[in-house]
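Journal club prep — side note

Before the paper discussion, L.F. wants everyone to see what a predicted structure for a comparable chain looks like in token form. Sequence:
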Amino acid sequence: MLDGCQLVVKNWLLTGRPGVGKTTIVRSLLPLLKGKLGGFFTEEIREEEKRVGFRLRELGGGEDILAHTSFSSPFRVGRYGVRIKTMEEIGVPALERAIAQADWVVIDEIGRMELFCPAFRERILWALNSPKPVLGVLQERASSLFPGIEEREDTRILRVTRENRDQLGEAILEDLVRSFPQWVKLGSGRG
């Protein structure tokens, strides 16, 4: 896929406060990428305007509930019980398929809920170490749970704020064009 290119940065992880727009930026970049996308997104589950859980949805594949306020589980993040089985049955295989078959690996997100699963931690390292470019979201506090991620020379961690979120997508796109010109649709939505 990379035609023997020597790249310094191939992993882009967005971090920042909840609700600041990290996932929105990643989703806005996907239509501008050539090739096959693999990985997953974590989506909020809302009932009567209240967030009650999170669903894990593989790109083009399966889905299941990852965490919910009604779940009884020894694994908890705040008021949410976490279902490790969802990471084992949806998240881990999604990453394995992305690494083996896709051109781009999408990981939304690397967070406390997801990191309860040891196999998921391992697949994150596989993805970051693979020749495939990774676009993902790193929960603000998760970097402390994933030692060494901030020191990786091949990984750029970008903090999203309300002030920079509208410009950050364009900056990442320019970075992707420099690193992977053959895998970005030039002229698509770039003004």
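L.F.'s comment for the group: Residues 11-43+84-183 form a domain with the Rossmann fold fold (CATH 3.40.50.300). Keep this in mind when we get to the figures.
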